[in-house]
Amino acid sequence: MWTKEDVAKIVADNKVVCFGKGTKQMPQCGFTMRAIQVLLHCNVPFEVVNIFDDPSIRPALVEFSSWPTTPQVFIDGEFIGGSDIVIELYQSGELQKKLEAVNS
């Protein structure tokens, strides 16, 4: 049974993490796929937590972030947002700056 503390630990233990539907190799949702593609394009290490692995992950994630949808991307402990926000930040160059700051 996942708790928001479990989510907090994963966010704290990983510089970049995406909670989404599916895996890095096999996303199971178009939104998750787009977020993963952007992160892959940025060529930085990141983890993906598949919310389908356990039905208690999603409620714990929502409780932790106060955000109802997935995917959810966190960089250096900060909630960034879902795929639309990640794409928007990428297009403006802000995502790359955030990723460079945590990976330098």
CATH fold descriptor: Glutaredoxin
Proportion of residues in helical segments: 40-55%
Under CATH, the homologous superfamily reads Glutaredoxin
Main sheet strand line-up = 2-1-3-4
* Strand portion: 15-25%
- The overall pLDDT average reads 97
Rounded radius of gyration (Å): 13 Å
Treating each run of at least 4 consecutive H or I residues as one helix, how many helices? 5
Q: Describe the biggest sheet? A: 4 strands, mixed
Can you tag this structure with a few keywords?
single chain; 104 residues; alpha+beta; Glutaredoxin; four-stranded mixed β-sheet; 48% helix
Task: Give the secondary structure arrangement, pairings included.
Elements: H1 4-13, E1 16-20, H2 30-41, E2 47-50, H3 57-65, E3 72-75, E4 78-81, H4 83-92, H5 94-102
Parallel strand pairs: 1-2
Antiparallel strand pairs: 1-3, 3-4
Helix pairs in contact: 1-3, 2-4
